[in-house]
Write a structure and sequence with these properties.
It is built from 42 helices and 15 strands. The longest helix has 26 residues, at 579-604. Strands 1, 2, 3, 4, 5, 6, 7 and 8 form an eight-stranded mixed sheet that branches. Helix 32 packs parallel to helix 34 (802-818). Among the domains are: 12-197, Nucleotide cyclase, GGDEF domain (Alpha-Beta Plaits), CATH 3.30.70; 220-357, Rossmann fold, CATH 3.40.50; 372-461; 551-686, Alpha Horseshoe (Serine Threonine Protein Phosphatase 5, Tetratricopeptide repeat); 881-969, no CATH class. With 969 residues, it is α/β, with parallel strands linked by helices. Helix content is 57%, strand content 9%. It is globular, with a radius of gyration of 35 Å. Strand 14 and strand 15 (531-534) form a beta hairpin.
């Protein structure tokens, strides 16, 4: 497991080309004592002092065959194959540091040496968290000028010490990891000081911090922040839902603060207590104070703590929150030097209290997983692996199970207790099996340690504890909120969750209470500045079970669906307007909730569900959620409940045809058939806008397939119909589609003018993008820059129009390509390819790949060009996209020219020319003319007219076979 040192900077100058040792490795960790204080006192001199310090450390480590694999500020982390080399390096470094004439202040460096198992990657990152962490703890226990060794390293060295050196037994010491004691040794070398203050270990300071049976994983950032909060405030409360690791975090932070509280750190566990009056007695018992007759426990505490510099940790206050608050307030008022660290689902509400919400552990992005070797840099994954090894020593992470480990951690929200319970199952189940069963996580995640609190032994018991502490209406709202599958707004809560026992005016306060009790999290939307709310998935599943078992479920589901249907209806009416940006933002934020509403309606309200999908149609296709709309409509349209020939059915048929066409899938239902039925329904109803829209979409289908001569007359007809109805939004759309198909810039400029008048941002972006593309194809590069730059500026201004950004990238990439900026073009094309694969649009994937193929051809990377041409051709064949097929075959012809296969190139160019129903645009024709000139110049004994005749008679299958054959023609 990789140790994720914070603010780490690898120093490549000190690797010296050496291989990092692996297997049994001895680590030397160092840092400067009091470096922060020195930097503040001597800001001008400190850089020079540090430079000399680094020089000494580098020299000593390299001289003894060590490798510095990381530096962090003034800290050095070095690895050695030999324990003796590590000791000699430390000894030499300390002697040089001690003899150095430092000015204005000496630098004193503490050092820790430990030997254990660890594996190094090629870039010098080490796995072996336990070994590395112990080396860090050993160093942290010492003082400047001191060298400490672990018992493991001592055993390797005791018979091989350098002259005038001895190892002084410092006894068994409890380190700051709160695990079992570790015997430490101090290296005493010639000329070096041997007397130091007591080691900074747990047993050197008064405390009752409990011994832990498992290692503490990660949380470096959180420990730093909690320590900072305690430096600035007298009362700090760690908040968060059960299982997030509040207790372990408080213990670890306290362990690292022992030297700051000379009168002790005292840990008090409140979970077992049931009566408020027992709290002061528990604190007295933890400190070791006997009760006295005639004086109350709180008064006794006040007398004892007055003037003492102590830290008291009150763990799990939530069930005794009022009593805890009262006692804490009295103690803080009576004891100016006292500090208190509490953990609870909610804050105590004491004046001056600082709340610190404990986050979940670091998680990988399961949509973009890093390399297997990098997964363990994430705390949640590292915790799973560590705990899995405890129950199964043969557990290994490999390429097959690593994605499932990441998925488990992600689906468990990075909650430490849940991850530990899941890891415990590797003894009897594979990681993949555990992952598959997480939908029933409350049955799966049981069997925690018998010594743990009962509520920590199963995941259900953990949440039962929090749920049982809620008042009735808080429970009711929590269950109703589980209907949301992602985050949500306050407006949605007030409309969906009020009624039937919860008055509308209660909702805000109840939601606030659930936030305070760490069952609901507040999510700040950076781009909208809107506050939304969400529930951890584990808590949501628990509350969802409760809701489904109650009589409330149908009531809440109906209100949930009705809310989103009303919102979608309003969104549809405001689509061609400045409000479209608001609705695009809303749509993206509510997508998972909308999906859940549609999925519910498939069975319960298919007519309403079809209307909801229709209302979302513009947004779905505009933002490329095409697979969802196709999936839903393929279920809604055949449903008998939607068989009536209504406007709703016709609209659904039209969107279904669009989704099949845009997604480029071969379906049982062809887009033409669906659109014909939609048109016939609109015709029966006398719905002229609907009829015109069908004609428009059918014309666009032909263009999309590469048959513009069939599509343009239909687009002309639709334009005339919309003009007769004075329907500005659709006039603009028809002008845009027709102008782009026929390369008519005035049509597109009129479209842009109408979109500007409407304030419809997506339309403006689309027509500007297409104006740029048309200008480029006509060879007007300055105009292309102008329009594409404006399109990009609008995209930046309206971040919600995410569905447009990648399609603009195609055209910006084309402009870079034709201007010879191949590096920029490649960046845009690869970005487009990644997006197209994410939205699963086969034609868009093919377009990106064929563009990359042409680019690689220009860069003379013929193998890559051939690969991407083949990939693109396969996609265009599957989707029956004629334009894509011909464009790709033209690419194969250009590839044949570079390969000097003149006959093959000539035949393919002639075949493609015959297929085109209109001339190529100038920028596309120019390179073809150049290739044809080269072909003619190099043909010997072959009449080009014969090649033209052969190409013109060839079938598509024959042309494809010729393009794909590898032998010379």
């Amino acid at each position: 497991m990789l140790l994720p040192w914070k603010k780490v900077m690898t120093n490549p100058s000190i690797h010296s080309g050496k291989r990092f040792p692996s297997g049994t490795v001895t680590f030397l960790f160092t840092d400067i004592e009091g470096s922060t204080r020195l930097a503040q006192k001597y800001p001008n001199a400190m850089p020079g002092l540090l430079a000399r310090h680094n020089e000494i450390l580098n020299h000593a480590i390299q001289s003894h065959d060590g490798c510095v694999f990381q530096t962090a500020g003034d800290a050095f982390y070095a690895a050695f194959s030999s324990a003796l080399d590590a000791l000699n390096a430390a000894l030499e470094a300390q002697q040089l540091l001690y003899c150095e004439p430092w000015s204005p202040s000496p630098l004193k460096v503490r050092m820790g040496i430990h030997t254990g198992l660890a594996q190094a990657s090629l870039d010098g990152k080490y796995s072996g968290y336990t070994t590395l962490a112990l080396a860090q703890r050993i160093m942290s226990a010492g003082y400047g000028g001191q060298i400490l060794l672990s018992s493991t390293t001592y055993e390797l060295l005791r018979d091989f010490l350098p002259p005038q050196c001895e190892l002084q037994d410092m006894g068994e010491r409890r380190l700051q990891d709160l695990l079992r004691p570790e015997r430490l040794y101090q290296l005493n070398g010639a000329g070096l000081p041997t007397t130091f203050p007591p080691l900074k270990t747990l047993d050197s300071f008064p405390n009752n911090l409990p011994l832990q049976l498992t290692s503490f994983i990660g949380r470096g950032k959180e420990i730093h922040e909690v320590k900072r909060e305690l430096a600035e405030h007298r009362l700090v409360t760690l908040t968060g839902p059960g299982g997030t690791g509040k207790t372990r975090l408080s213990l670890q932070a306290a362990a690292e603060l022992l030297d700051r509280f000379p009168q002790g750190i005292w840990f008090v566990e409140l979970a077992p207590l049931s009566e408020p009056e027992l709290i002061p007695q528990a604190v007295l018992s933890a400190i070791g104070i006997n009760e006295r007759a005639g004086i109350s426990p709180v008064e006794l505490l006040q007398d004892y703590l007055r003037g003492k510099r102590c830290l008291i940790i009150l763990d799990n206050c939530e069930h005794l929150i009022e009593a805890s608050s009262g006692m804490v307030s009295r103690l803080l008022n009576a004891s100016p030097e006292l500090k208190i660290l509490t953990s609870s689902r909610e804050t105590l509400g004491v004046k001056g209290e600082a709340a610190y919400p404990v986050p979940s552990l670091e998680l990988p992005d399961i949509k973009h997983l890093p390399l297997m070797e990098q997964l363990s840099q994430y705390e949640a994954v590292r915790l799973f692996i560590d705990r899995a090894l405890l129950v199964s020593s043969h557990f290994v992470v490999n390429k097959d199970n690593a994605p499932f480990i990441a998925q488990i951690c992600y689906r468990l929200d990075g909650i430490p207790l849940a991850i530990e319970l899941a890891a415990a199952r590797v003894k009897m189940m594979s990681v993949e099996q555990i992952s598959r069963r997480l939908d029933d996580r409350f049955r799966l995640l049981t069997g925690g340690a018998r010594t743990a609190l009962p509520r920590q032994q199963t995941l259900r018991a953990l949440i039962d504890w929090s749920y049982d502490l809620l008042v009735a209406n808080e429970r009711l709202l929590l269950c109703r909120l589980s209907i949301f599958v992602d985050d949500w707004t306050l407006d949605a809560v007030e409309e969906i969750c009020a009624g039937n026992g919860i008055d509308p005016y209660e909702v805000l306060d109840l939601l606030g209470q659930l936030v305070n009790k760490s069952l609901i999290a507040v999510v700040e939307q950076s781009h909208t500045r809107e506050r939304r709310y969400r529930m951890l998935e584990t808590i949501r599943q628990y509350a969802r079970e409760k809701l489904q078992q109650s009589s409330e479920n149908d009531y809440v589901c109906e209100r949930y669906f009705d809310y989103y249907l009303r919102a979608a209806r309003q969104a549809e009416t405001e689509f061609f307007s400045p409000r479209e940006i608001h609705w695009l933002t809303w749509f993206e934020g509510e997508w998972d909730n909308l999906r859940a509403a549609v999925e519910w309606s498939l069975e319960k309200r298919p007519q309403g569900g079809l209307e909801l999908v229709n209302c979302l149609g513009h947004f779905l296709t505009d933002n490329w959620h095409v697979s969802d709309i196709e999936n839903w409509l393929s279920q809604f349209i055949p449903d008998p409940a939607n068989a009536a020939r209504t406007e709703t059915r016709a609209c659904g048929l039209s969107y279904w045809a669009q989704s099949i066409n845009i997604g480029s899938r071969i379906d049982v239902y062809s887009p033409d058939t669906l659109m014909e039925e939609a048109f016939s329904i609109y015709e029966e109803l006398g719905d002229r806008p609907g009829m015109a829209n069908c004609i428009l979409q059918k014309g666009h289908f032909y263009y999309w397939k590469g048959e513009p001569n069939k599509g343009s007359p239909l687009l002309e007809e639709a334009l005339q119909l919309f003009r007769q109805m004075d329907d500005k939004p659709w006039i603009a759309t028809a002008l845009r589609l027709l102008g782009f198909t026929e390369l008519i810039i005035p049509y597109m400029e009129e479209s842009l003018s109408l979109y500007r008048e409407l304030g419809y941002a997506s339309g403006m972006i689309e027509v500007l993008k297409q104006l740029g593309a048309v200008a480029l194809r006509l060879g007007h590069f300055d105009l292309a820059h102008k329009w594409l730059d404006e399109a990009l500026a609008l995209l930046q201004q309206h971040a919600a129009t995410v569905g447009k950004s990648k399609t603009v990238s195609y055209d910006v990439g084309d402009l870079a390509f034709y201007e010879g900026n191949y590096e920029l073009a490649q960046r845009y094309y690869e970005d487009c390819l990644a997006w197209a694969e994410r939205v699963v649009s086969s034609v868009s994937i093919g377009v990106a790949k064929v563009r990359l193929a042409y680019l690689y051809l220009k860069c003379n990377e013929l193998q890559k060009a051939s690969y991407f041409f083949r990939e693109a051709l396969d996609l265009f064949l599957k989707t029956q996209n004629l334009y894509g097929i011909n464009f790709t075959l033209g690419g194969f012809a250009s590839l044949a020219v570079v390969e000097q296969r003149w006959v093959k190139a000539g035949i393919l160019f002639c075949y493609v020319d015959r297929q085109l129903d209109r001339p190529r645009p100038p920028v596309e024709q120019a390179p073809v003319d150049q290739d044809l000139a080269v072909i003619r110049a190099n043909l010997t004994g072959v009449d080009f007219a014969n090649l033209s005749d052969e190409g013109s008679k060839m079938t598509m299958d024959q042309a494809i076979a010729l393009a794909l054959e590898e032998q010379r023609v």
